[in-house]
């Protein structure tokens, strides 16, 4: 993978969201690998406590600390962080009040859970705050510690509220450290340094959720990114065959003759039965292809850059993750 311009030059925080079941965490992990290629340093963050990153990379559960988990093509490093809200609260108390020891006592008393239960927006401020701190962080040499940060965010239906921290804490505090903290977070999240990417499948519900999610982002003034269409199947049949099958004009008799000529079926009833079964499969494939074309057209109305990632026949293992990263890079997304 060679260094080059990408669709997201200047973006340092890549937020990845999507409807459940679309492979959001897998795409976030592959994007982190793609961004790290060629010697860059990338942090992959998760916030939902599912240990999805550990599962994708086939690792033990991750602690609340940044640690290297993978080497990207070309020698770059991917680090990971599974954010724990309680630990993020302790970081917050230390940063703004110098009260980490007292904070530990508060967590034992359940005060953190109480606070984030009565004010759910505060929990989001804590976890997004930890992420944006990593984006802003500089080393002793004055350079950014990470070239990019990838956030495996909550699902599409909750992502705008999750990221719109200034609005969420407005009722909690209009001045003081909480408000200042929210403003720091918003300064990163709402800036051109951030892009919110959507993961979808070529199916009606996830596509509609993607379009609705993009609309929500625009309403809240958050920066939309690209659309990653996951698990895309390649058609193995010519367009003319698919069109004929979709219109009910496919001739199983011709297929039976072809099977016999190729020595794949015996003559008579056997060839006819095999041809009928294959014809049904072709008709189903043609119907699905037609629906997928329709969903592609719907996604095109968004005006956002689109990337298609292949369906991996053997499932998502480490080799498959690197294959997806290669595809992301080749399409100019990283």
UniProtKB/TrEMBL annotation:
<dbReference type="InterPro" id="IPR025723">
    <property type="entry name" value="ArsA/GET3_ATPase-like"/>
</dbReference>
<protein>
    <recommendedName>
        <fullName>ArsA/GET3 Anion-transporting ATPase-like domain-containing protein</fullName>
    </recommendedName>
</protein>
<dbReference type="InterPro" id="IPR016300">
    <property type="entry name" value="ATPase_ArsA/GET3"/>
</dbReference>
<dbReference type="InterPro" id="IPR027417">
    <property type="entry name" value="P-loop_NTPase"/>
</dbReference>
<feature type="domain" description="ArsA/GET3 Anion-transporting ATPase-like">
    <location>
        <begin position="13"/>
        <end position="170"/>
    </location>
</feature>
<dbReference type="Pfam" id="PF02374">
    <property type="entry name" value="ArsA_ATPase"/>
</dbReference>
<dbReference type="GO" id="GO:0005524">
    <property type="term" value="F:ATP binding"/>
</dbReference>
<dbReference type="GO" id="GO:0016887">
    <property type="term" value="F:ATP hydrolysis activity"/>
</dbReference>
């Amino acid at each position: 993978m060679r260094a080059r311009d990408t669709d997201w030059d200047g973006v340092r925080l890549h937020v990845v969201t999507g409807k459940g079941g679309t492979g959001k965490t897998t795409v976030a992990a592959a994007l982190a690998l793609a961004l790290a290629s060629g010697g860059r340093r990338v942090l992959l963050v998760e916030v939902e406590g599912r240990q999805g990153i550990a599962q994708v990379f086939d690792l033990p559960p991750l602690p609340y600390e940044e640690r290297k988990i993978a080497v990207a093509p070309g020698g770059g490093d991917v680090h990971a962080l599974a954010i724990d809200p309680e630990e993020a609260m302790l970081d917050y108390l230390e940063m703004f009040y110098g009260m980490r020891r007292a904070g530990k006592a508060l967590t034992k008393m359940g005060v953190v859970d109480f606070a984030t239960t009565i004010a759910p927006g505060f929990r989001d401020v804590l976890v997004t705050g930890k992420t944006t701190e990593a984006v802003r962080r500089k080393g002793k040499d004055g350079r950014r510690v990470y070239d990019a940060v990838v956030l495996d965010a909550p699902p599409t239906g909750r992502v705008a509220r999750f990221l719109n921290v200034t609005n969420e804490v407005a009722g909690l505090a209009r001045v003081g450290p909480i408000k200042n903290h929210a403003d720091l977070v918003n300064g990163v999240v709402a800036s051109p340094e951030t892009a919110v990417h959507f993961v979808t499948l070529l199916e009606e519900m996830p596509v509609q959720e993607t379009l609705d999610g993009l609309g929500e982002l625009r309403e809240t003034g958050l920066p939309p990114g690209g659309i990653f269409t996951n698990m895309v199947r390649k058609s193995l049949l010519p367009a003319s065959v698919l069109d004929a099958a979709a219109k009910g004009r496919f001739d199983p008799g011709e297929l039976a003759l072809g099977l016999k000529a190729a020595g794949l079926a015996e003559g008579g009833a056997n060839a006819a039965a095999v041809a009928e079964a294959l014809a049904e499969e072709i008709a189903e494939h043609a119907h699905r292809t037609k629906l997928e074309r329709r969903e592609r057209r719907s996604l095109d109305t968004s005006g956002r850059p689109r990337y298609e990632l292949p369906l991996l026949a053997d499932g998502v293992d480490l080799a498959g993750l690197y294959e997806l990263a290669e595809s992301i890079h080749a399409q100019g997304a990283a």
